[in-house]
């Protein structure tokens, strides 16, 4: 009985791994003169934190950075990271998304619908914060990408 349970658990784990979207490497840089806090508010930010490894640090000191990886279990064609940093009055909201969009025009000879990968990023500041998002790398074979979020 234990072997069947273990096999079922491993099968479930392997199927969830197979569905994971490409990993995004997030580097947050605090280029300001004060420490900033990582803040989780909305559903997408909660899911980003849950899918992050290691978890983002709660405080990033002035002049320092934090790097973490996010892989969404939703689909092999989707991943995202929504994060927010604040020093009280100033705040930056960062987003990066990946979606592998079906290409119009029908099937390939082998019956597969071709897809077009799309990577996006945004940075929205408030309270006088300067916020920037830049995609620094992407891999067309694995679809993984890296993004750098900067707050000043």
Highlighted features:
152 residues; alpha+beta; 5-stranded mixed sheet; elongated; signal
- List the uncertain runs: 1-17
Order of helices and strands: HEEHEEEEEEEE
Number of strands: 10
Main β sheet profile: 5 strands, mixed
Structural class: alpha+beta
Q: Whole-Å distance between the termini?
A: 58 Å
Global morphology = elongated
Helix count, DSSP H or I runs of 4 or more residues: 2
Mean pLDDT: 88
Helix content: 10-25%
Radius of gyration: 18 Å
Keywords: Signal
Signal peptide: 1-20
Describe the structure.
This protein is of the alpha+beta class and 152 residues long. The chain contains two helices and ten strands. The strands form two sheets. The protein has a five-stranded mixed beta sheet with strand order 3-5-1-10-9. Strands 4-2-6-7-8 form a five-stranded antiparallel beta sheet. The longest helix has 18 residues, at 2-19. 23% of the residues are buried.
């Amino acid at each position: 009985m234990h072997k069947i349970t273990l096999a079922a658990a491993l099968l479930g784990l392997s199927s969830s791994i197979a569905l994971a979207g490409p990993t995004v490497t997030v580097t947050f840089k605090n280029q300001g003169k004060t420490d900033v806090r990582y803040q989780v508010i909305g559903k997408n930010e909660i899911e980003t934190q849950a899918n992050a490894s290691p978890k983002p640090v709660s405080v990033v000191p002035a002049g320092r950075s934090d790097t973490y990886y996010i892989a969404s279990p939703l689909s092999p064609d989707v991943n995202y990271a929504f994060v927010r940093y604040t020093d009280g009055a100033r705040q930056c909201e960062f987003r990066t998304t990946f979606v592998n969009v079906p290409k119009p025009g029908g099937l390939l000879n082998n019956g597969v619908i071709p897809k077009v990968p799309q990577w996006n990023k945004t940075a929205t500041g408030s309270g006088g914060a300067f916020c920037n998002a830049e995609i620094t790398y992407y891999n067309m074979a694995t679809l993984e990408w890296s993004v750098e979020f900067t707050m000043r």
